[in-house]
Design a protein that fits this description.
The chain is of the alpha+beta class and 513 residues long. Helix content is 17%, strand content 31%. The protein is built from seven helices and 27 strands. β14 and β15 form a beta hairpin. It is elongated.
Length: 513
């Protein structure tokens, strides 16, 4: 009964928090406010970057320093903005993910929050090289800076309940945030590690947020945190955070999980603004970053060349040549149910056991040989994480495994337009994101008021809809690591505790008055 009451108290809090959510409008400017607060706004910079040392088999502090030099020089003229986010592994390269020795060689000590490391720069040793340089960069640019590094914690100096490595330290994939004075505002140790065996993991996910001098509170998340309930959803639901800084190194995975697909979809579904900066290594599938508004619009780009200068300040780039857009394939595809789409009907459905996906569409395929498929899945992935997904996908052939083939495998999709699309399914959770890709650019669709959710007696009916001509690579709904509260899906009785809470609040207010 206690959990039952707490659940509805959370619903009431969430309903209230929606009134206070900020909006993201214009290109890089987030604007927000309500009748309760003055209007706020901030300018953000995001980028894609291939670090020095990306092609090395060994790492040392010299690599760390070269990347700090490079990024320092790249932002000489960044004054006038409020937030700058560096990508995950931007100072080290991907080698540190699974190579403990390499990670140790570039690891850094992160001091307590509140320190201004730039002031002690001349007296600090190599263990503080990154934090001191980043502190000075934030101070010089007068900007709030978020960066990612390998944090080193000496075992004897920690109280976490974890086994110490043979090297005598705990190593974390850590985000750090500095204010305009160079003060360390926050640090977050990544919890949802994906193929990152070199790193230790905290006992529980840390919900880390920080306040800025320009009046906006940010949550810190890293990489695949967007696909997990904690800490991202906790920051939104419990702490009412509506702006996020997101360093990432994301492997583009077809048909549902390229970086820009998930970033845009998560931002829109969760009702938050997201600033993502990405590691860039196209041959391994790492690319895609941007600034995502909670209304489903964005500015983003996909890097198509490894190395070179950082890609900064995107202008809704629409890459035409996707021959260098490397992707991985969903390992679960062989298990998906599937229905081939044809020109003889405007309706289609496919069911994975009792989980069904329905599609209404208008299109003229002419004489094209097409392999559009409506596919669905409801189960667990290789890590035991619950996944529900359904969507229209342009596949390379009639077999469902071809739905994860590279973008160029379905070239027919660049010649065919759907004039209208509506996709719906009944999910176990409301945490369902639109996962979409344009066939001609591999960027997601913008969604403005086209994602609809309705709570049913059991579950949630979720639908996305477009009523204008679009060329589709993926048009889907995707849910990952969702949490369902027992007894929380009964729409017929859901209003009762909320009414009681509201009535209690009114009585309390009257007593105060």
């Amino acid at each position: 009964m206690e959990n039952f009451r707490n659940y509805y108290f959370l619903v009431a809090l969430l309903t209230t928090s929606q009134v206070l959510c900020r909006n993201l409008v214009a290109d890089e400017t987030i604007v927000g406010g309500s009748e309760l607060v003055d209007q706020e706004q901030y300018g953000a910079i995001t980028l894609q970057y291939t670090p020095v040392g990306w092609d090395k088999e060994e790492l040392n502090l010299n690599i760390l320093e070269q990347n700090l030099d490079y990024l320092d020089a790249a932002f000489v003229n960044a004054k006038g903005r409020d937030l700058l986010v560096f990508p995950e592994y931007a100072l080290t390269s991907l080698l540190v993910k699974e190579n403990r020795e390499a990670a140790y060689n570039v690891s850094q000590i992160v001091p307590h929050v509140g320190n201004i490391m730039c002031e002690a720069n001349s007296t600090l040793g190599n263990d503080y090289l990154a934090v001191s340089r980043l502190s000075c960069l934030a101070k010089r640019l007068q900007i709030t800076l978020v960066a990612n590094l390998v944090e080193k914690v000496i075992c004897k100096a920690t109280e976490v309940n974890q086994p110490c490595g043979a090297d005598g330290v705990l190593l974390y994939n850590t985000n750090v945030a500095f204010d305009q004075d160079g003060k360390l505002l926050a640090k977050y140790r990544k919890f949802n590690l994906v193929e990152e065996s070199a790193f230790n993991k905290t006992d529980a996910a840390e919900a880390v947020k920080f306040n800025t001098k320009f009046g906006v509170t940010f949550g810190l998340v890293t990489g695949h945190d967007l696909l997990f309930h904690s800490p991202a959803s906790e920051l939104i639901n419990k702490h009412q955070v509506t702006n996020f800084a997101h360093p990432t190194a994301w492997v583009n995975n077809l048909p549902f999980k390229t970086g820009t697909q998930i970033q845009m979809g998560w931002s829109h579904t969760m009702g938050v603004n997201l600033v993502s900066s990405s590691y860039l290594h196209v041959e391994k599938g790492y690319s895609g970053a941007g600034i995502y508004r909670k209304d489903g619009t964005y500015r983003t780009a996909i890097g198509l060349e490894t190395g070179g200068d950082p890609i900064i300040d995107f202008h809704d780039q629409e890459p035409q040549d996707l021959s260098n857009f490397f992707t991985d394939s969903d390992s679960l595809l062989a298990n998906y149910s599937t229905t081939l789409i044809n020109n003889e009907t405007t309706l289609a459905e496919t069911c994975f056991e009792d989980f069904c996906c329905y599609l209404n569409f208008e299109a003229d395929f002419g004489n094209e040989e097409i392999f559009f498929q409506l596919i669905a899945f409801n189960g667990t992935d290789e890590d035991g994480v619950v996944v529900q997904a359904c969507g229209l996908v342009a596949c390379g052939g009639p077999e469902v495994l071809t739905c994860g083939d590279g973008i160029s495998s379905a070239s027919y999709a660049t010649r065919i337009s759907f004039n209208a699309l509506k996709l719906r399914g009944t999910f176990s959770s409301s945490e369902v994101i639109p996962s979409t890709l344009k066939s001609e650019s591999a960027l997601p669709f913008s969604f403005k008021s086209t994602l609809a959710k309705q709570q049913l007696t059991k579950g949630w009916q979720v639908a996305i809809e477009i009523n204008e001509p679009v060329k589709v690579r993926t048009f889907a709904l995707y849910s990952h690591d969702f949490h369902v509260v027992v007894g929380g899906n009964n729409a017929a009785t859901a209003w009762i505790p909320c009414f009681i809470l509201l009535h209690f609040a009114v009585l309390t207010l009257r007593l105060i008055v």
